[in-house]
Design a protein that fits this description.
alpha/beta, nine-stranded mixed beta sheet
């Protein structure tokens, strides 16, 4: 077997090892998901340097052909991409002779710094079965060399302070750190959805959760000047812009909603106003979404959180939809949603003190258990409702982020 393995020459190079999770078990669709991932990585790094992505089995290798890899600059741009479970800053080794692997591993530990570590482990994975040594033999030989080079370290194969990984592939890769990513699926690999983005805490989190499942999300915001300020609109634009860190881009519809709200305020029972407003919003979102090829409306509803989010209220609102409504936060409590909002960087934007249109027009004593049949009977008498909905759709402003 030793004669079958061809040793190559070449200097070591810093690379970023990009690992993905669910994509690896996608069978015949794996190529499609990986291409989506590659496209997003390239887009995020566009203009930052001469980067190139090499496909290896089960991971991607990112190299900088313009010079030495700057991990501090590159990692944040890659780590926020949906579908990536983690990245490892490491070294690509073309010369896989054992003596060179020993030297590279020792150099890697020197660069990482060993002062904070007392124990270590070498873990080798031999994907290239032509390599003339078994994985355990490589680990043992390299480990012995490390013990000689670093007298302060001892071996602990069960709970080491640091593990140095060696992957023997077409080239070898050496690394010791896995920085956890978001996981999920590449954005756009699961179709498109339109999220009703209110400016509150919940809806940006809902958008994030669906993007994590591969949905290409766009948004619709209902603007009600003069009852809502320009700063309330800007808050939503800032939320959408923040979401682009995970989605790559974001299309936001800003729908003029004042006339429609005032019409409903005048013509429907006040305790049912919120339900009618949300039904109208749902209809607008469906029309805009269908134009863009969306397959679902996404909301930040959490069951029982507010009066309109009782099961009865959600049923009455859903009945107005012409496409499925997805509520990824339905079973979450408020603190769970807040925790995610903080994690993704939307919380501080959402709590800016600028109210949305629903807050301004909320009833003092909203009905919590509306009957869909009653709501639909009242709505059937609103002869001008369709006109106001169509006007709102046609006058929507589009913001591309």
């Amino acid at each position: 077997m030793a004669e079958e393995f061809e040793y190559k020459e070449g200097a070591e190079e810093k690379v970023l090892i990009v690992k993905y999770g669910e994509i690896a078990v996608r069978g015949n669709n794996r190529k499609f998901f990986i291409e989506r991932l590659l496209r997003t990585i390239r887009k995020n790094l566009d203009g930052m340097g001469d980067f190139y992505v090499v496909k290896e089995q089960g991971r991607l290798i990112l190299e900088d052909r313009g010079g030495e890899m700057d991990f501090d600059k590159v990692i944040p741009k890659v780590l926020c991409i949906m579908g990536i479970i983690g990245v490892s800053p490491g070294v690509r080794v073309k010369n896989q002779r054992l003596d060179n692997l020993k030297k590279v591993c020792a150099d890697h530990l020197r660069e990482v710094g060993v002062d904070d570590y007392r124990t270590f482990k070498i873990e080798t994975k031999r994907s290239n079965k032509k390599y003339p040594m078994e994985s355990n033999a490589v680990s043992a030989a390299v480990g012995e060399y490390i013990l000689d080079e670093f007298p302060s370290l001892t071996v602990d194969v069960h709970e080491p302070d640091i593990t140095v990984y060696i992957e023997l592939r077409n080239d070898a890769y050496v690394y010791s750190r896995l920085i956890k990513g978001l996981g999920g699926l590449p954005v756009g690999s699961s179709g498109k959805g339109i999220v009703m983005l209110s400016g509150g805490i919940d809806s940006p989190v809902a958008a994030f959760m669906m993007a994590k499942r591969g949905v290409d999300v766009e948004g619709v915001y209902f603007n009600s000047p003069p009852y809502t300020s320009e700063r309330a609109k800007q808050k939503v634009v800032d939320l959408a812009d923040r979401l682009t860190e995970f989605t790559g881009s974001f299309k936001l519809y800003v729908v003029p909603f004042t006339d429609l709200q005032l019409y409903l305020l005048e013509h429907v029972p006040h305790d049912k106003l919120t339900i009618f407003l949300k039904r109208a919003m749902t209809r607008v979102a469906c029309i805009l979404g269908e134009r863009d090829g969306a397959l679902a409306v996404i909301t930040g509803d959490s069951v029982g959180q507010v009066a309109s989010q009782t099961m009865q209220g959600l049923h009455a609102i859903s009945a107005a939809a012409t496409m499925p409504i997805m509520r990824p936060l339905a079973g979450f409590d408020k603190q769970e949603i807040v925790d995610i909002a903080r994690q993704i960087g939307t919380f501080d934007i959402s709590i800016r003190p600028y109210e949305d249109c629903c807050t301004i027009f909320v009833a003092k004593h909203p009905e919590t258990k509306p009957k869909t049949s009653v709501i639909e009977k009242i709505e059937a008498k609103l002869t001008d409702l369709d006109k106001y909905i169509n006007e709102a759709v046609e006058n929507a402003e589009i913001i591309e982020l």
